[in-house]
Amino acid sequence: MFYNNKKAQLKILESIAVLIVFFFLVGLGLNFYGKIQLQSLQAAKDDFARNDAIKISQKIVHMPELRCSLQNTDQGSCIDLDQALAWSALQQDCTGTVGGDNAQSLCSERLTQYFEQIGVGEIVLKRTYSSDPALESDLANGVWILYNYSTPDSVSGKSAPTFTQIPVVIFDTLTKNRDLGVLQVRIFS
Question: Which domain range does residue 85 map to?
Fold first, then answer.
């Protein structure tokens, strides 16, 4: 009788050990599955952020404030340099607004209007090639910040930016030159 009790105790301990190993393996499987799901969700999030950045850059290229048009026809991925310079100056004026509450209110309205379309990010127009030899040697000056709206989180690096570059034609209405440029869009999600 004493022998049967020991045998029963061993079977119970054996069953408990099998259950512990089983649940340990199930836990490892769930952990592995969770990590794979997290990676696929991150990849999907990055994909959506990249698509949003491309949509925003397409909006920027086709904005009436920047696009070049000849005889009321759209020129595709073309940005008017004079309009881009004016937009860049407006952006610079609004970041360091001087002139009291009225000027601050006007800049706030402008930035809010563009913030609703673009969000938190930075848009830079950069000339990469010029048909004018005088400008070709001075490409470093061909960089204009068109939009810069950042938050403390985006500056500190808590959210990774999505970076997109789109080739554009930069049309100078004064010299009638068409230069090659890149519209760099950096969006924080």
Answer: 38-188
Per the DSSP assignment, residues forming a β-bridge with 168 are 181
pLDDT at 89 over 60: yes
**2-44 pLDDT per residue, tens:** 566 777 777 888 899 999 999 999 999 999 999 999 999 999 9
Of 86, 84, 70, the C-alpha closest to 181 is 84
Residue 67 lies in a domain: yes
Distance (Å, rounded) from C-alpha 115 to C-alpha 40?
30
Indicate the number of domains in the chain: 1
Q: For the whole model, what pTM was predicted?
A: 0.66
What interhelical angle do 81-95 and 100-118 show, nearest 10? 120
What is the separation of C-alpha 145 from the centre of its chain, rounded to a whole number of angstroms?
15
Residue 10: inside a domain = no
Residue 19 resides in a domain: no
